[in-house]
Specification:
With about 260 residues, this protein is mainly alpha-helical. It is about 75% helix and about 0% strand. It is built from eleven helices and no strands. The chain starts with a helix and ends with a helix.
Length: about 260
């Protein structure tokens, strides 16, 4: 194997034939179905409210279950794409077939991020369309956004999912441990945000806004959402999301190409 196309084809074959990939995609599909159930619940809840309560009632958008699950799936897939080969010893065969290490590194990262982005977009679109059909013409704020605003929000949620996959991949290349990589990713996504909120103002809001799990909502917030998306301008959030990816992949590439397998 010598070219980038060969490296991508080889890594795609490996990724789509391991059971962990099927488990991650199955989890995404399951949470898409939860989006449908959530929309059905919101409809039943809305129909039981008085006119006065409907004027102030709030509900999360249809894609909310996926918005919570996709970062988890991205960390798991990004970590396993690189760490599983170290644990099985397959990495030595890979590097023997492709001595230029940067080629398999970029191919692994690319196929993992592309798969997670595609899965996220398909599931988000399906869950949102199903939610719109179920809720119908009921005036639930989170379900009444303009199509262009909804599409922009879903696009950036998918891109953020791909970015988290790449960050976890880079971290996995540095740590070479599935447990350490997944634990570190979950800590950044779910443990660090509430801890940061304990800091004095204005550092709590500033640091919380810069964490990687909430940047998509600061670039294109969910229409009708009543939550605090953060304080960063959209351009700064895009730049920060790209910076996380560049730093993680750069560190991972450095270790991948210089340390013994």
């Amino acid at each position: 194997m010598t070219g980038p196309g060969d490296a991508i084809a080889a890594e795609w074959y490996k990724l789509r034939t391991v059971r962990s990939t099927a488990a991650v995609l199955g989890t995404v599909a399951a949470f898409m179905l939860l989006c449908v159930l959530w929309s059905w619940y919101v409809t039943r809840y809305w129909d039981g409210l008085s006119a006065e309560r409907r004027a102030t009632a709030k509900a999360a958008p249809a894609e909310q279950p996926l918005a919570l699950a996709l970062p988890v799936c991205a960390v798991v897939l990004g970590a396993l794409t690189v760490t599983s080969e170290y644990s099985s010893g397959m990495i030595r065969t890979t590097l023997a077939a492709m001595p230029r290490r940067i080629a398999p590194f970029l191919a692994k990262a690319g196929v993992a991020a592309a798969l997670m982005a595609a899965a996220a977009w398909v599931a988000l679109a399906a869950g949102t369309v199903a939610g719109d059909v179920i809720v119908g013409d009921r005036a639930v704020p989170a379900f009444q956004g303009r199509a262009a605003d909804v599409a922009a929000h879903l696009l950036w949620v998918g891109l953020e999912t791909a970015a988290i996959t790449l960050v976890a991949f880079g971290l996995g290349a540095v740590l070479r441990s599935t447990a350490a990589t997944i634990t570190g990713g979950m800590a950044v996504l779910f443990v660090l945000p509430p801890l940061v909120r304990l800091l004095p103002s204005p550092w709590d809001e500033r640091i919380w806004s810069a964490l990687p799990g909430g940047l998509a909502n600061q670039i294109a917030a969910a229409p009708g959402s009543s939550g605090d998306p953060g304080s960063l301008p959209a351009g700064a959030a895009v730049a920060l999301l790209a910076a996380y990816v560049v730093v993680a992949l750069g560190a991972g590439a450095y270790v991948f190409t210089r340390r013994d397998a």
